[in-house]
């Protein structure tokens, strides 16, 4: 398998995991910058045409792996692969954020829900034709939009 | 940053990249199995409640990185981060597939668009409340659903 290394770094207003939004939906309007290593700048061509992008990154402050966790939006232990917890094997996170503009190797984004200094692994365009799921069932996850917006993280996944 | 290693393997009917669907939308009903290493079996609890899951994996047959590529759905060169090409730095792919059932450490999935023997990196639940994007703009990507369904890959990203 290919080696995986950071291709840049994500800057956000959140330097501590405590009190951070738990998902982009809870971070509406929160501004961040994605700095892509200069070696990869040509890869950013044409990206500005997309309103939303996936960021793939490493949960760098997750210090351990746990196979069963209690998610922020639930009060019962759940298998980690049925959650978005950072304590998953490989500690890879994904967030769909709004792309506002690109200047040289800096992406200005909104709705950012990651820690400052998060190592960036990849950027992909959100494509409605590929990514929109028309009807889905969300298992244990029954919280309201309002609950998700209000929820803030704590130290449980550190 | 955390080391990233396979946590399992994806089996699909596609042993060659030529003639493979280019996205889950082109692989409707195509059956695959995701074998998760037995060490992680407890992490699969509660996942069966979700109708759709993200698979994160390594494009193991991508032999090089290119920063500008001509995507399958376009006839112009584009920055690789504005595409879903396997030739991206780190060679990480994501697909949203249907989860039909789980037996022990095997996930039975549909709409699979990856090569047989693809190394699995992570599984995440698709959560409508986190992941649905209400209105988005998809840049250069203007193909119809029908074009996407019909399109098959070729050797360009090998």
How would you describe this structure to a colleague?
The structure is a homodimer of 158-residue chains. With 158 residues, chain A is mainly beta. Chain A has one domain (8-143): Elongation Factor Tu (Ef-tu), domain 3 (Beta Barrel). Chain A contains 2 helices and 8 strands. The first copy, chain A, has helices at residues 128-131, 145-150; strands at 8-11, 31-36, 52-58, 68-69, 78-79, 92-103, 106-110, 118-125. In chain A, a hairpin with a 2-residue loop joins strand 6 and strand 7 (106-110). Chain A is globular. The two termini of chain A are 28 Å apart. At the A-B interface, strand 3, strand 5, strand 6, strand 8 and helix 1 of A face strand 3, strand 5, strand 6, strand 8 and helix 1 of B.
Quick synopsis:
Two copies of one chain form a homodimer. Chain A is mainly β and 158 residues long.
Descriptive tags:
158 residues; mainly beta; 6-stranded antiparallel barrel; globular
What's the helix and strand layout?
Two copies of one chain form a homodimer.
Chain A: E1 8-11, E2 31-36, E3 52-58, E4 68-69, E5 78-79, E6 92-103, E7 106-110, E8 118-125, H1 128-131, H2 145-150
Antiparallel strand pairs in A: 1-2, 1-8, 2-7, 3-6, 3-8, 4-5, 6-7
Q: Supply the number of helical segments of chain A.
A: 2
The oligomeric state is homodimer
Q: Count all strands of chain A and give the number.
A: 8
| CATH architectural label of chain A | Beta Barrel
CATH topology of chain A: Elongation Factor Tu (Ef-tu), domain 3
Query: How widely separated are the two ends of chain A?
Result: 28 Å
Radius of gyration of chain A: 16 Å
Q: What is the CATH homology-level superfamily of chain A?
A: YaeB-like
Mean of the pLDDT scores of chain A? 91
Q: Describe the biggest sheet of chain A?
A: 6 strands, antiparallel, barrel
Could you spell the SSE succession of chain A in H and E letters?
A: EEEEEEEEHH
β-strand percent of chain A reads 25-35%
Weakly predicted, low-confidence segments of chain A: none
What structural class do the secondary elements of chain A suggest? mainly beta
Which chains make the largest contact?
Answer: A-B, 68 and 68 residues
């Amino acid at each position: 398998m290919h080696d995986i290394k950071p291709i840049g770094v994500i800057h956000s207003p959140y330097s501590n995991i405590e009190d951070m939004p738990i998902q982009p939906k809870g971070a509406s309007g929160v501004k961040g910058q994605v700095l892509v290593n200069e070696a990869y700048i040509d890869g950013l061509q044409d990206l500005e045409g997309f309103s939303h992008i996936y960021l793939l990154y490493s949960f760098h402050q997750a210090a351990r792996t746990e196979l069963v966790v209690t998610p922020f939006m639930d009060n019962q232990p759940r298998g980690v692969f049925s959650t978005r917890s950072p304590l998953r094997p490989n500690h890879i996170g994904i967030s769909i954020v709004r792309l506002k503009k690109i200047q040289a190797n800096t992406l200005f984004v909104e709705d950012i829900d990651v820690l400052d200094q998060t190592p960036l692994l990849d950027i992909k365009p959100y494509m409605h034709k590929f990514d929109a799921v028309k009807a889905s069932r969300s298992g244990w996850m029954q919280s309201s939009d309002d609950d998700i917006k209000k929820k803030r993280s704590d130290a449980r996944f550190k």
